[in-house]
Amino acid sequence: MADISTTVNGIRFPNPVMTAAGPNVRSGEIMRAAIAGGVGGVVAKTVSVVAAEDRRPTIRRTTGKGLMNAETWSEVPVEEYLEDLRQAKEAAAAPGTVGTGRAAIPLIPSVGYKPEDVARLGALLETEIAPAAIEFSTHYTGKSHDPLVAVARSLREAVSVPIWMKISPTTPGIEELVAAAEPYVDAFVAINSYGPVLDFDPEDPRALLGTPDGSGWLSGAPIRTIALNIVHRIAQAQSKPVIGVGGVESGVDAIKFLMAGASAVQVCSAAIRRGNEVYGRIAGEIDSWLEKHGYSSVSEVIGLYRPAGATPEAGPTTMEATHGAVRRMTIGAAACTACKACLNQCVPVAIGDNATTEKAYILPDACIGCGYCQDVCAYNAMELKETAT
Q1: pLDDT in tens, 178-232
Q2: Are 348 and 368 spatial neighbours (Cβ–Cβ below 8 Å)?
Q3: Which residue among 36, 59, 322, 354 has its CA within the 20 to 30 Å range from the CA of 300?
């Protein structure tokens, strides 16, 4: 077995799969269920100084196994939610809560949204709960950088525990934002749900959510690639840890986030769709993937992703003159099984099949090197290679 523990800001998590702030952690009972399901850390539902409006219905299925939600922050007053947090912390600290010898599960409350709000809430939570860290959401604070940094500064001045800044995907200039916030925060969480979005049934074209116009926020698998991109950008732009969230449904999804630069991941939509056992299943799949690929720990894969190649220099308009070499698809004859799956998947019609062997081959002058055909080859017979001009 690999060592799947991870450390963020000196806090040890027995595995890198946390809950994400959302309806999957709306109560102490549900947080205890997440702990029983094998989660490595509990991030609680965001609280603010005023309880959120109840906008039922708040969660509906949408395209691509995603969820569309009208969730905001906790509909429970913070004073009442403190008891839920105490229940979760007690369960998280209990020896053997999740399997024999299981380590304690760190608890991270989430707060929002104005500077004065997070200062008050942070101080209250640090006193009453003594959390491992505190996350703060920027989802309803606007998109201008100065107010967002002001929230970070205010919470930093109010508490001594590590603070995590959760980034919204539509915030402009994310690299500049994290650089400005880095002096005040200890880690970044990316991303929050994406939106606003709209979906409905054309057979019954009424609003699916309880918002005034029926719009909501998109989460789950459809935002995974957006989240991966932003995690990588944040990891490259500054030196603090990053926690990835957005469409994590499997161990392979989590491995991608780790390779993109995350130190851990958070899960919400998958838990809503599949139940609290999903946390432990993802953690187990991480372990299996690491062992299968010869890695002994999570730390060995963090940040492994590297962009391909250098930026081509400006010059003549043809690919050959611009790059000096072009990347074209190649097909290994030994690996090709003549299954013909690639033949109808080539956008520029650059693949033929040999009349004798029936194996596929590339028409070099037609190949544009898009790489799409690789995705349909089940035998790893296709590879992009540079061809000198």
Answers
A1: 999 999 999 999 999 999 999 999 999 999 999 999 999 999 999 999 999 999 9
A2: yes
A3: 36
